[in-house]
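User: quick one, sequence for these tokens?
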């Protein structure tokens, strides 16, 4: 432990074995101090947020991920499938003075052609040209490539041309194919997820990376996941933020595994901050963690809370998160940050500061 501590204080990279040692042995207070050292080195006292909204075109999905409470089959009660017109109507109600980012993610619909996704990006971009479009997970993008018979580079380049500015971090789950075969057997494999992000980075499209933890995986799997992300980031530098997503158990096929404790959430956040020395930002996604746990996470390595959301996402409320209608004003986000002892900074989607409060 002393050796690892010295490395972290000297800003030296820790190895996968050392990371595993931390997962197995390190206590929360110690991890908090070390993660905060890394956090302050990278981001000072800043705690970032943005003004964003989600558009979820459909929850109809060809995949049957066991952790998902959101997916429905076509025609099943509770399914939705917005038409292009409906998506654009929602977009027209948004105000570019109020939101700076639209995050578009949904299920992998069995029949939507690539032209539908082209029209979504094109339409949203034309209505809100100043607003950053962060859209489609690697999973959705790969299925677009398969469905259209076009290489992934072409899919990405075309969407970029139409206004796609970055890609979100979803679909990563755990980047270990044995774990994937247990929880998301129909999803693309680990190498393909990484390949899509690598191709995006090569085209100048920044992205995020998530990790869904606290289900059937073990600490070795988490370390493997983090190591794959750190290696790709060494190569491309294209990841902006890492987002650990705590498995929430309500209304899905993995319910019986339960949820990990808040102590484990904070230990995990801290270890991720320490290990991922090359990914600048760590997000405590408040609709998933809950507001007070996200606030606490700022002292354990996180420097970003995501955004105002405006009650526009259902993934977490359907999986049992406390906030059924997630929305926060800028004033509330700022208060939350200040109460935790940090400085609230509104950012754009590429983490350029817009305003310090
Ligand atoms: O890939 C689904 C996760 C992800 C559950 O890039 C669940 O800024 C916990 O990736 N319990 C999609 N997690 C959401 C996502 C995301 C969210 C916010 C910001 C960004 C970003 C990306 O949600 C999925 C999956 O890992 N998820 N079901 C569940 N029951």
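Assistant:
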């Amino acid at each position: 432990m002393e050796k690892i501590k010295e490395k972290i204080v000297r800003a030296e990279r820790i190895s996968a074995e050392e990371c595993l040692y931390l997962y197995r042995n390190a206590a929360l207070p110690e991890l908090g101090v070390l993660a905060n050292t890394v956090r302050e080195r990278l981001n000072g006292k800043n705690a970032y947020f943005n003004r964003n909204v989600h558009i979820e075109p459909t929850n109809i999905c060809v995949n049957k991920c066991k952790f998902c409470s959101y997916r429905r089959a076509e025609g099943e009660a509770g399914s939705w499938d917005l038409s292009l017109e409906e998506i654009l109507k929602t977009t027209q109600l948004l105000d570019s003075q109020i939101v700076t980012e639209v995050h578009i993610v949904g299920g992998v619909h069995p029949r939507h052609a690539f032209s539908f996704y082209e029209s979504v990006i094109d339409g949203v971009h034309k209505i809100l040209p100043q607003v950053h479009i962060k859209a489609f997970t690697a999973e959705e993008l790969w299925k677009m490539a398969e469905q259209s018979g076009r290489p992934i580079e072409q899919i990405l380049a075309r969407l970029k041309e139409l206004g796609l500015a970055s890609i979100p971090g979803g679909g990563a789950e755990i980047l270990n194919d044995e774990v994937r075969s247990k929880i998301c057997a129909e999803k693309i494999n680990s190498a393909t997820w990484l390949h899509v992000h690598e191709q995006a980075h090569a085209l100048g499209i920044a992205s995020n990376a998530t990790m869904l933890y606290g289900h059937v995986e073990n600490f070795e799997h988490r370390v493997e996941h983090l190591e794959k992300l750190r290696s790709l980031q060494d190569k491309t530098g294209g990841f902006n933020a890492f987002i650990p997503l705590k498995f929430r158990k309500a209304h899905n096929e993995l319910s019986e595994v339960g949820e990990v404790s808040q102590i484990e959430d904070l230990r995990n956040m801290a270890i991720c901050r320490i290990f991922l020395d090359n990914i600048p930002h760590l997000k405590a996604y408040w609709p998933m963690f809950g507001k007070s746990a996200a606030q606490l996470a700022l002292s354990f390595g996180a420097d970003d809370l995501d955004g105002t959301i405006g009650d526009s996402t259902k993934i977490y409320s359907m999986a049992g998160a406390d906030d059924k209608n997630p929305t926060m004003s800028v004033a509330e986000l700022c208060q939350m940050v200040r109460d935790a002892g940090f400085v609230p900074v509104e950012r754009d989607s590429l983490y350029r500061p817009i305003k310090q409060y």
